[in-house]
Amino acid sequence: MADLLKDSALAVRFAAACAVAREGGALARRFFENRGSFQVSFKGPQNYLTEADQAVERLITGRLRELFPEDSLFGEEDGGSFGRHAWVIDPIDGTENFARGIPHWCVVLAFVSAGEIEVGVIFNPVSGELFAGRRGQGAFRDGVPLRVSTVSDFGRANVEVGWCPRRSPADYAGLVRAVMDTGATIRRVGSGALGLAYVADGRTEGYAEHHINSWDCLAGILLVREAGGWVNDFLAKEGLSKGNELLATTPALREGLIAATGIGR
Questions:
Q1: How many CA atoms lie within 13 A of 169 on its CB side?
Q2: How far is CA 191 from the centre of its chain?
Q3: 204 is in which domain, residue-wise?
Q4: Looking at the structure, do residues 92 and 210 belong to the same domain, yes or no?
Q5: Are the CB atoms for 131 and 121 separated by under 8 Å?
Q6: Which tens digit of pLDDT belongs to each residue from 17-52?
Q7: Which residues contact 223 (CB under 8 A, 6 or more apart)?
Q8: 1 lies in some domain
Q9: How many of the other CB atoms lie within 10 Å of CB of 51?
Q10: What span, in angstroms and rounded, lies between the C-alpha atoms of 50 and 57?
Q11: pTM (predicted TM-score)
Q12: Residue 56 exposed, middle or buried by CB count within 10 Å (0-12, 13-18, 19+)
């Protein structure tokens, strides 16, 4: 089709995403190192918003508009639109951690074209780790190829279970129990994007959540798939604009986690 982007155009966007994520991350880290100097507010119960989120998003969207005026943009804080070629941005994923001085948060950019996640970048400014991938071209941490874990025994597996305020505490407890009943240990550390990056990097074996927004997970979905893992069809229905359930895991544990969580059936 005439409006499909060429490989060269995607390569340019990939390079730009890496550079812009680092620039946005540097700004976010300056805020983080001066915690107490910025205002913290709430968009809803346990839904943090800081001045840093807004400043970082505006820096990123400004850079991308200059570079790719033909692309649409959607950021968690200021919104936007989802066109055929769209950037989806979370300026700080893990804002609660960020606001509390916990060094587990990241900057997230994804580029979606014609219904496919083409580029995904997750940058942790505290550790300095850049997780980046392109569809069909692999996923990398600071240039080192990512591969999912080879653990095939739930008794040795670790799965992150994300919490969603749109679902009840009972639903979350049920998901935690379902995963633990497989024999896996569970974790929740407050950044879905980093949780997915860790699956891609073989640090954990899975990530499950009843509902997550696209800006939190598109980049991580690409990374997991490019690292040899499996992810349910997150973009089904209105996943891009309204979010969806999510399960990402290794091939060896896929069927067991689908059966346990009910996600991806």
A1: 0
A2: 8
A3: 154-261
A4: no
A5: yes
A6: 999 999 999 999 999 998 766 666 565 554 555 788
A7: 120, 122, 131, 132, 133, 139, 146, 196, 197, 200
A8: no
A9: 13
A10: 11
A11: 0.94
A12: buried
